[in-house]
Write a structure and sequence with these properties.
alpha+beta, 5-stranded mixed β-sheet, 5 strands, 36% helix, 29% strand
Length: 102
């Protein structure tokens, strides 16, 4: 299985690193980024780990929490040969309003 990473996912990672570096320090920001990519790799191996998100108005979205940073959620979808990674956001956000189209 391969990863198809959408632009908004990369943007979310960049924003997350910046936010965490400012609020918690560079070491935490780096650990978070490493955990995000490790979780992406885990999902590529075990795509069924995430649960279907019927509460999100976008078809076939699944979610899984970032390893070691459980408040952050990765949103992705399955296709026959790859996983599409749409967004990564903090779980305290209003997730229903997330844009998955870009």
């Amino acid at each position: 299985m391969t990863a198809h990473i959408r632009p908004k996912f990369y943007q979310d990672v960049s924003e997350g690193v910046t936010y965490l570096a400012e609020k918690a320090g560079a070491e935490i920001a780096l650990a978070w980024a490493e955990a995000v990519w490790a979780t992406v790799q885990e999902l590529l191996t075990h795509p069924w780990l995430g649960r279907e998100r019927k509460d999100i108005p976008f078809p076939a979205v699944r979610s899984w929490r970032v390893n070691e940073f459980q408040r952050w959620i990765i949103f992705y979808g399955e296709r026959p040969l790859d996983l599409v990674f749409y967004r990564i956001r903090h779980g305290a956000m209003n997730l229903i309003r997330l844009d998955f189209n870009s």
